[in-house]
Amino acid sequence: MISLHHYLLLSGILFSIGVLGVLIRRNAIVIFMCVELMLNAVNLTFIAFSRYLGNIDGQIFVFFVMTVAAAEAAVGLALMIAFYKNRESIDVEDCNLMKL
Amino acid sequence: MFDNVWLIPLFPLLGFLINGLFGKKIKNETVIGGIGTLAIFASFIVSCGILAQMIALPAEQRIYEKVVFPWIHSGNFKADMAFLLDPLSVVMIMVVTGVGSLIHLYSIGYMHGEEGFYRFFAYLNLFCMSMLLLVLGNNMLVMFIGWEGVGLCSYLLIGYYFHKQSAGDAAKKAFVMNRVGDFGFLIGLFTLYWWLGEHANVWTINFMEIKKASHLLPYGGVVTIASLCFFVGATGKSAQIPLYTWLPDAMEGPTPVSALIHAATMVTAGVYMIGRMSFVFIKSPDTMMVVAVVGAATAIFAATIGTAQNDIKRVLAYSTVSQLGFMFLAMGVGAFWAGIFHLMTHAFFKACLFLGSGSVIHAMHGALHHAHLHDDPQDMRNMGGLRKYMPITFITFLVSTLAIAGIPGLSGFFSKDEILWQAFSNPYHGELNMVLWGLAATAALFTAFYMFRLVFMTFYGECRINPKVKDHLHESPLVITIPLMVLGFLAAVGGYLGMPKIVGLLPNFLEHWLDPVFELANEYGKTYAHTAGHESHLLELGLMGFSVVVAVVGILIAMTFYVKNTTLPKKFTDALPGLHRTVYNKWYVDELYDFIIVNPCKAFGNFLWKGFDVVVVDGIVNGVATVVMGLSGAFRYTVSGYVHNYALVMAAGTVAILGYYIYH
Fold first, then answer.
1. FRET partner for A30 with CA separation of 20 to 30 A, picked from A46, B214, B314, B566?
2. Tens digits of residue pLDDT in A1-56
3. How far apart are the C-alpha atoms of B31 and B28, rounded to whole Å?
4. Nearest CB to B641 within list A23, A24, A96
5. Alpha carbons B136 and B125: distance in angstroms, whole number
6. How high does pLDDT run on average in chain B?
7. Is the pLDDT of residue B533 over 60?
8. Which chain A positions have a beta carbon within 8 Å of B643's beta carbon?
């Protein structure tokens, strides 16, 4: 029997993978994908609680998150293209203009 | 006709607007000058109508107030744009519009070909409007608008040749010194308004209402303070000690301006104001004494300076200061009508003298220009023998000079003699009377001397200028000489309006005329006058004879010095070089003021700039910026530039906050 705990555990694992990916990886696209992973981990939590509490609000919220994620993807990819045009790289280590 | 009084200031205002807005496009000097002159002449016609109507009325009905529009009504405070017609203001509008018209006409000739011709006429009209507001206003606020307006126009016209440094400086000096006086005027106004309201529950700035309530005012005390403040205002506008030094410098303006503003009208505003408020001034014996002493002191002091100046207009300027001193003396000894009488006769003869000097300068300037020489056309040392070339100017000038010197039969004699007699015989100042009379009589001696010195140096003897110039000297055109002739005529006969009773050929029209205005003041004066005043006819005749002798002696001295024995002045100055230098340099009063007031003010300004503004204000502003910059420099080390660092800090922060909420 798959209970709420399992969903939450999976969601926590996915979220942690996402956080670690953002912190460790240097490729901007991978970081970006990790962010998406975190968002979807949160979505999973929403859905699980929605089902568990019998309340539809959580599912509606997931739609919002997905919309924001889509918008974020558009903006993020545009940024990356602009950055690549300037630096011929999408390595975040190269975003260093603010360094002393 | 009384109802049309609002037209009087309106015409010059229209003239100002037309010439000021469209003058540059009109270009034609005849049209511009014609508009300006007609504007003021129209006011003169209306004034004549009002005068005629007022003469027809019985004395006690000669008062009329016209509210043009309600202006400020706020609680207890009420000020309307309203005009007051009474014998005093009618005398003033007649002088302002009459002499003003002549000077406008004269200016068409004198300013011919000047750059900014239209600007000149626009300013002249604006000045006339302000002056008419000043004398017509029925409350202190309307008067104050005029008071400030004439100050502004004076500034604009002194600085007419603004490309000259000296003209700009003179304009600023006049404006600043006038502002000092205006401050006094305002304080006086507030004091009187406050006291009457607070203690007598009469909240008003209307002259007639104050007059009605004036019996509530105490003798001395707060009235002394208020009237002294008003007097400070008068010393600024009317160039009395200690605020007189701007007037001689004001000669930087074109000559018609000197005639209109700095001799005939604006500078008499202070005298008019004291006359208007006579019922307040006389309630303070101390103020009356201050006014009399300052007047007498200014009369003698300025007269001494006049004896040593070489610039023809400067002599006349000091003469004006001195004559204004006579007017204040008259006010201070309670002879208000005599002050106004001298104001009127002085307007005639001094305007004539200034315009005559302008005619001379005009001729000299033109001749020097033709001969391509750059001598000073205003320096009397370059003149001499001009009567041959300029007969009309000479004759009118001579008549006016005789009038100011106090030769019997001419206007100045009657007015000045009345003042001298009143200074001697007034019941207010006791022992001081002798001193006042002595100072005034000595000033009269000096007046006769320096005026004839001027006439002899300018019109008599041999022409001292380069012979090349002589051929180009000629009489000024009619547009200049007609005003001279009219004013010369008035200077001769103006005195018959106020002939003293003792001469008795004619009744004293002017004293009767002004009686309703000054009646109340004389009434108040009686309560503290300690003597009944001398009434000896013999004494009056004796003093009159004495002042004639004084005038003749002054003229004879001038003749000895400057006609008979022309080496004498040189010998005299060589014998007393220190005295001559001191008088020539105007007793170093300007230097003294620089030392006491101007330089400390500049030093204080410098301190505020370099000490306060640069160090404190800029220090605070720059200090804030420096602190912020230092702090941000320090915090900058936390910004590594690595995206991972930020992400790590953010994640750690989130964990910390979550942990706090979970375990709290």
1. A46
2. 788 999 999 999 999 999 999 888 888 899 999 999 999 999 999 999 999 999 99
3. 5
4. A96
5. 16
6. 90
7. no
8. 31, 92-93, 95
**3-state secondary structure at position A57:** helix
**Residue B60 parent element (H or E):** none
Question: Could you give the CA distance from residue B337 to residue B522 in angstroms, rounded to a whole number?
Answer: 11
> Chain B closest CA to A4's CA: distance in Å?
20
Which residues in chain A are closer than 8 Å to B640, comparing Cβ atoms? 99
Closest to B466 measured CA to CA, from B398, B382, B377: B382
Phi, psi of B287 (to 5 degrees): -60, -40
Residue range B599-620: mean pLDDT, rounded: 92
Q: What is the CA radius of gyration of chain A?
A: 17
Whether ipTM > 0.90 holds is no
User: Which residues touch B477 (CB under 8 Å, ≥6 apart)?
Assistant: B109
User: Which residue in B334, B329, B539 sits closest to B427, CA to CA?
Assistant: B334
Q: Which pair of structure tokens corresponds to residue B67?
A: 């509210």
CB contact under 8 A, B644 and A97: no
Which of A5-14, B447-456, B517-526 is predicted with the least confidence, judged by mean pLDDT? Answer: B517-526
Contact check, Cβ <8 Å, A22/B647: yes
Residue B81, SS3 per DSSP = strand
Q: From CA B378, how far away is CA B313, in angstroms rounded?
A: 7
Nearest to A19 among B637, B640, B651 (CB): B651
What is the distance of C-alpha B128 from the center of its chain?
Answer: 13
Note whether B469 and B371 are within 8 A (CB): yes
Alpha-carbon distance B645 to nearest alpha carbon in chain A (angstroms): 8
| Residue B245 in tokens | 């030094």
Phi-psi region of B221 (alpha: psi -120 to 50; beta: other; left: phi over 0): left
Asked if the model's pLDDT at residue B642 lies above 80, the reply is no
What is the b/e burial string over B104-118, where b = at least 16 CB atoms within 10 angstroms of the residue's CB?
Answer: bbbbbbbbeeeeebb
pTM summary value: 0.82
Verify whether the Cβ–Cβ distance B641 to A97 is below 8 Å. yes
Average pLDDT, integer, range B93-119: 92
pLDDT of residue A91: 87
Interface mutation vs chain B, best among A16, A20, A22, most B CBs within 10 Å:
A22
pLDDT in tens, B271-284: 999 999 999 999 99
- Please check the confidence at residue B523 and state whether its pLDDT lies above 90: no
Residues in chain A with CB shorter than 8 Å from the CB of B644 are: 23-24, 26, 92
Residues β-bridged to residue A27: A91
**What pLDDT is recorded for position B174?**
93
Which residue, among B186, B193, B227, B224, has the nearest Cα to B210 in the 3D structure? Answer: B193
Terminal C-alpha separation, chain B: 95
Say if the Cβ atoms of B641 and A22 lie within 8 Å.
Answer: no
- B638: chain A residues, CB-CB within 8 Å: none
Residues 375-414 in B contacting A (C-alpha not used; CB under 8 Å): none
Question: From residue B203, how far is each of B83, B196, B199, B209, B460 by CA, in Å?
Answer: 19, 6, 10, 9, 61
B-interface mutation test, from A16, A23, A30, A83, most B Cβ less than 10 A away: A23
The residue type at B520: L
Shortest Cα–Cα distance, B619 to chain A (Å): 29
Whole-number pLDDT of residue A100: 58
Other CB atoms within a 10 A radius of the CB of residue A83 amount to 17
* Chain A, chain B: beta-carbon pairs less than 8 Å apart: 30
**pLDDT 10s digits, B565-609:** 878 888 888 888 888 888 888 888 888 988 998 899 999 999 999
Q: Does B467 touch chain A (CB under 8 A)?
A: no
The model's pLDDT over A59-82, given as tens digits with 9 standing for 90+, comes to 999 999 999 999 999 999 999 999
Helix (H) or strand (E) holding B82: strand B77-85
C-alpha–C-alpha distance, residues B134 and B147, integer Å: 6
